[in-house]
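Ticket opened by: R.M.
Priority: normal
Category: complex prediction / small molecule

The reporter submitted a protein together with S-adenosylmethionine and asked that the result be attached to this ticket for the collaborator who will pick it up next week. Submitted input follows.
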Amino acid sequence: MLKPPLKWAGGKRWLVSHLKPIWEANAHRRYVEPFCGGLAVALGLQPEQALLNDVNPHLINFYRQVQNGLRIRVQMRNDEELFYRHRERFNRLIRTGKAQTGEGPQLFYYLNRTCFNGLCRFNKGGDFNVPFGTYKVINYVRDFSDYVAVFRQWTFSNEDVESLQLEAEDFVYADPPYDVEFTTYSAGGFSWDDQVRTARLLARHPGPVVISNQATERIIELYEGLGFELRYLDAPRRISCTGDRTAAREVLAIKP
Ligand SMILES: C[S@@+](CC[C@H](N)C(=O)[O-])C[C@H]1O[C@@H](n2cnc3c(N)ncnc32)[C@H](O)[C@@H]1O
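Result attached by the on-call engineer:
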C-alpha cells in the first residue's frame, strides 16, 4: 500500500481497518472525501473512482502536480538554514501569485516534510509561518511516479465542502477538522457553524455517508439528532489540527 506522500495533521490511517468493511459493501460507487487532507484513508481503501476535495489550495495543487508526473528538483536537506531560505522563497511565490506551478509545489513538498509536525499554517498576511521541524532523519521523495497510476482515475477539487458537486449514488467519507469543545471558532478556522452545516449537508445526501469526528457532547447530539447511527472508538495519540498530542475519543456517524 502506498504511504501518504505528505505529512498531514489529523491523518486517519488507523481508521482504515474500521472503514474497510463499510466501504467494501459500497465499492461499486464513486468514493468522495470532502476533507481529504493527507489522503491516508483514500490510499488505504484504494477506490477506483474518487472525488477528493480539500479547501487547502496548496495541498490540492500538489496532488494535481503529482498526477502530472511531479519531480522535485529543488535542494532538499534537513537543514535549518535551507529551510528558512526555501520558506522565504515560497512566500515570495505566494505574494506574486506563482506558488501553484514550477518551484511552488516542489517547495511546498519540502516545507511540509521539513517543518514542525507537517503543519500547514499561514499568518494574517498569507505567509506560511510554520517553523523548522525536529526530525532526526527525513526520507525525501523526488519522484512520485508510483502514485501516478493510483491517482489517474481520481479527481481532485479545491472547494468549500458545501460547493462540492455530489451525485446521489456517491459514497461519502467525511473527516472534518476536529470539534474543539467550548469554542465557537476553532484554531483551524473551522467553526461550530461549519460543523453544523457539514452535518446537515451530509444528512441530506441520499447515498451512504460516514463521518468521523472527536466525540464531544455537542457533536454526539448533532449527529444523533440528524439520525446517524453512532459508533465509538479510541483514537491513538495523534497530532490534532492545532498540533497538540492528546488522545481523543472518536465517533463514527454512519448513514447506510
Ligand atoms: C482532519 S483533516 C483530514 C485528514 C484526512 N482524513 C487524513 O487522513 O489525512 C481536515 C481537512 O479539512 C480541510 N478543511 C477545512 N475546512 C474545510 C472546508 N470548509 N471545506 C473543505 N475542506 C476543509 C483542512 O484543510 C484539512 O486538510
